[in-house]
Every structure is written in structure tokens, then in C-alpha cells.
Design brief:
Elements: H1 5-61, H2 71-79, E1 83-88, E2 93-96, H3 103-115, E3 127-136, E4 139-149, H4 156-206, H5 221-270, H6 278-305, E5 313-317, H7 318-335, E6 339-344, E7 349-353, H8 354-370, E8 377-385, E9 388-395, H9 416-421, H10 429-439, E10 443-449, E11 453-461
Helix pairs in contact: 1-4, 4-5, 5-6, 7-8, 8-10
The protein binds adenosine-5'-diphosphate (ADP).
Adenosine-5'-diphosphate (ADP) binds near residues 413, 414 and 428.
Length: about 475
């Protein structure tokens, strides 16, 4: 059975409060009881010894044992709630206090007996007697019997003290319970309200509303984190959803262009408008090649997604390698009257997969070339910062709109600007580039401004 947070918290508080009060009362009853017991037993012993001493003294002062003025003993017996009996050596009773004065207190103590379980060791309510020798001039001349109800140990003050203590325990238990319940209700409300909101948000997301956000203002760290996570999840799902839709339309677009060209060409042949010349077949071939390349790219991406990139790492002079790559690109730039500059720090060594590195740079440089404007300029920078190698490819080309910037590394994502430029790209190069960089434990990111240019930064570890 699932219980609500409120029920659980209240029950927890209840058990904790009751448990601690019970424990505290048990311990204090026990300890105070023990203390009282020793104190009262000592007191009782002194009392009995005093009585014995007084009786001894009385008998010592008189010549005959029967001439005693028993009034004083009687007063004592009544005052101390004791039964006193004095016998001579022949077992003749010399004095007895009688036990009528014991009745009242015995009844009272019997009543208290029910309340004071912890004093049971003292045989509450039970009558007991102890015998002491009657000494006259240090000679035993008889026996003094002193009887008392065990309860007479307990002065009424001690009973009152213990019962007041227990009453205050009961009272504090009640107050603590009420207090605890109020606090548990407040706390559980504070916890369950934002949780309910977050659950609502998740439920709405489940039925497809990815615009909802959990608007939770909680001072509980975990709840705050949960709400941030659910909002982040919604944001990610929204992005993924957008990318998925865009991917389908992008792919359709990429496939349609070559297919349309082929179709119109074939129609023109069929209608006899066009002669099937070698050049026209070459144009066909180019389109078919574009399609093949796309299919290849798709396959590559599928491989990348399996995340089992095998790197063939070796220690290479990255500076030399990059110079070579830049040199191979120079003719392409010059042909279009662009400029390709480089600022490469010498002798930078790195342990990387040379082929993959070439592919990374090829992608970045051909993008820079593709998206330049007339008289455009691109620059390649290589330097070392702490334990990282930094490679920058900077161009002053068409730039990437801010809304597209977070997605350029996604499969088939192309900014509208580049689409209009008709560069023949397929939006896959950067996806592959990113996968290669990350496989090396590095990272890649882009900074860009429309019409001003783009900078791609690759950070690679040296090892
Ligand atoms: P594509 O084959 O379209 O170039 P990429 O994956 O290499 O695919 O790039 C994805 C998109 O990123 C491009 O379509 C373009 O919109 C943008 N892009 C990449 N490099 C640049 C750049 N240097 N300048 C402007 N836009 C760029």
C-alpha cells in the first residue's frame, strides 16, 4: 500500500515523539526510583535504630522491666507508623503498641502501590517485621520487634514527586504530539506541493506537451534539482523533437534535389527535347554520385552512433601535419580569390589518429571555404595552452544565425543561409568532425556572427 508523504511524515513524528517520551519517562522513573529507594531505606534504618536506642535507654534507666513509662514508645510508634513490641527473655510481652494506628496508612499505601510499579522492590503494602535485641547495660534482656508496612518507606512527598513527574511527562507527550503533528503537516505540505507540480508537468510532457515547465519555488535543494532536471528534460525533448522533424524534412530535401534533376533530364530525353550527350550523362553521373555520397554518409553516421570508433593513435608532429593540410587547401582558396592564412606554433606533438585528424581539418577548412563571401579570408591557428592543443579555424564568411548555432553539429542540420548558398553540403560533416574530436577526448565548439564570420575551436589533449 502506498501512503502519502503527509501520512508517512505524521506517523514518523508520532512514533518518534511517543518513543522518546516513553523512553525518557521510563529512564527517569527508574533512576529516581532507585535513588529514592536507597535514600528511604537509609532513612528507615536510622529511624528504626533510633527507636531501638530510645527503647534501650528507657529500659536501662529503670530498675525493673515492668516499670516502664510506655507512653513515649507509643507516641513514637504512632508517629513513625510502626508496630513496636517488647518481650523479655522468657517471651513475655512487656509492651505492645497495638496495630490500629497502622491501618490507615496501609490502605493508603496499597492504593499508591497500583501507581508506583517501580517501587515494587520495596514490597509496597507488605507487612514485615524485624527483631532487635533489648540491651540493658550491653546485656541482652529481651527482644524488640518492629513491624511496618513496606510502604511506610515512601513518604507522601516522594510519591507526590514521582506522580507529578509522570503527569508532566504525559502532558509534554500530548503537547509534543500536537506540535509534532502541526510541524509534520507543514513540512509535508512544503514537500508534497512542489512534487505534485513536478508530477503534473511530467504527466503533461507524457501526453506530448513539451512547452510545459515546472514552475516550482522550493527551498528544498533536492526538489529544486528535480524541478530543474524535469525542465531540462522537457527542453531536451523539445529540441530532439524539433531536430527529428527537421531531419526528416532536410533528408527529403537532400534527396529531392538530385532526383528532380535526374527526372527532368530523363523526361527531356524521352520527349526528344534533349539529345543524350556525354556531357549530359556526366551531369547524371554527378547527381547519382551525390546520392551515393549521401547514402555513404548515412552509413557512416550509423557507425558513429554505435560509438565504437577505433582510433589508430600515434605520436605525430601536429604542427608539420597541419602545415601540410593547409598547403593542400591553398590552391582551392586562391582559385576563388580567397585568402588562407596560418599561424602554427612549431613542434607541437600529439598522440592522435592521423587520418581522423586530417578528416577533422578537411571538414573545417572546406566549410570555411564553402561559406566565404567574395574576397573572403580564412585563418588557421595552432597553439598549446596548458595540457591542451587549441586549433582555430576562423573565417569572415556568411556566419551562422544564432538560432542555428547550437545545432550545427547535429545530423543533417544546415542553416538556411547555407542552404540558400547552394553549396551542395549535406549537413553531416560537422557531425562526423565532432564525433572524431570527442573520440580523442577533446571538444569542439563554434562562435559566429551572421555576415561577420565563424570561428570553430577544437581542443585536443596532448596525450
Ligand atoms: P554541410 O555539408 O552543410 O557543410 P556541415 O555539417 O559541415 O554540413 O555543416 C553544418 C552546417 O553548419 C552548414 O550547413 C552550415 O549551415 C553551418 N556551417 C558550418 N561551417 C560554417 C562556416 N564556416 N560558416 C558558416 N556556416 C557554417
Amino acid at each position: 500500500m502506498k501512503a502519502s508523504l503527509m501520512k508517512k511524515l505524521s506517523l514518523g513524528f508520532l512514533i518518534a515523539v511517543l518513543g522518546s517520551i516513553l523512553l525518557a519517562s521510563f529512564i527517569s522513573n527508574y533512576i529516581i526510583g532507585k535513588k529514592f529507594e536507597t535514600y528511604l531505606v537509609d532513612e528507615h534504618k536510622t529511624k528504626v535504630n533510633n527507636v531501638v536506642k530510645i527503647i534501650d535507654d528507657l529500659y536501662s534507666n529503670e530498675k525493673s522491666l515492668s516499670d516502664i513509662n510506655t507512653e513515649e514508645i507509643q507516641r513514637y510508634a504512632e508517629l513513625q507508623e510502626m508496630y513496636i513490641e517488647v518481650k523479655d527473655l522468657n517471651n513475655n510481652t512487656l509492651y505492645t503498641s497495638g496495630n490500629s494506628h497502622l491501618q490507615h496508612s496501609a490502605m493508603m499505601e496499597n492504593m499508591m502501590n497500583g501507581m508506583m510499579h517501580n517501587f515494587s522492590e520495596m514490597n509496597i503494602g507488605e507487612y514485615s517485621e524485624e527483631k532487635h535485641p533489648l540491651l540493658v547495660n550491653n546485656e541482652k534482656v529481651g527482644t524488640i520487634t518492629i513491624g511496618y508496612f513496606g510502604t511506610s518507606y515512601l513518604s507522601s512527598a516522594s510519591v507526590t514527586f514521582i506522580s507529578t513527574l509522570n503527569h508532566s511527562f504525559i502532558l509534554s507527550a500530548v503537547i509534543a504530539l500536537i506540535f509534532g503533528l502541526i510541524i509534520s503537516v507543514i513540512i509535508s505540505r512544503q514537500l508534497s506541493r512542489p512534487l505534485a507540480k513536478i508530477t503534473d508537468t511530467a504527466n503533461m510532457m507524457r501526453v506530448g506537451d513539451l512547452e510545459v515547465r515546472a514552475d516550482v519555488n522550493s527551498n528544498t535543494k533536492e526538489i529544486d534539482e528535480l524541478s530543474n532536471s524535469i525542465n531540462y528534460l522537457a527542453e531536451t525533448l523539445k529540441k530532439q523533437d524539433m531536430l527529428r522533424k527537421r531531419l526528416t524534412s532536410d533528408m527529403a530535401h537532400e534527396l529531392r534535389t538530385p532526383l528532380t534533376t535526374l527526372k527532368t533530364h530523363v523526361e527531356a530525353f524521352m520527349d526528344g527535347i534533349w539529345e543524350p550527350t556525354t556531357e549530359r550523362f556526366e551531369a547524371f553521373y554527378e547527381e547519382i554520385q551525390r546520392l551515393t555520397k549521401m547514402v555513404d554518409n548515412l552509413r557512416n553516421i550509423a557507425k558513429l552512433e554505435q560509438r565504437n570508433l577505433n582510433l589508430n593513435k600515434s605520436k605525430i608532429n601536429l604542427s608539420e601535419e597541419l602545415e601540410k593540410i593547409v598547403d593542400t587547401f591553398k590552391p582551392m582558396f586562391i582559385k576563388d580569390s580567397y585568402e588562407l592564412l596560418s599561424s602554427i606554433a612549431p613542434e607541437i606533438m600529439a598522440t592522435i589518429d592521423k587520418d581522423k585528424f586530417k578528416q577533422i581539418m578537411n571538414n573545417l577548412l572546406s566549410n570555411a571555404h564553402k561559406y566565404l563571401k567574395p574576397n573572403g579570408k580564412a585563418q588557421v591557428i595552432l597553439k598549446k595552452e596548458k595540457e591542451n592543443i587549441i586549433i582555430k579555424v576562423i573565417d569572415n564568411g556568411i556566419g551562422i544565425p544564432e538560432k542555428d548555432l547550437p545545432y550545427v553539429f547535429e545530423r543533417f542540420y544546415r542553416s538556411d543561409l547555407s542552404r540558400n548558398k547552394n553549396t551542395g553540403g549535406s549537413g553531416i560533416g560537422l557531425t562526423i568532425t565532432k564525433a572524431f574530436v570527442e573520440a580523442h577526448g577533446g571538444k569542439i565548439y563554434a562562435q559566429s556572427k551572421v555576415n561577420e564570420g565563424t570561428t570553430f575551436v577544437v581542443e585536443l589533449p596532448t596525450k
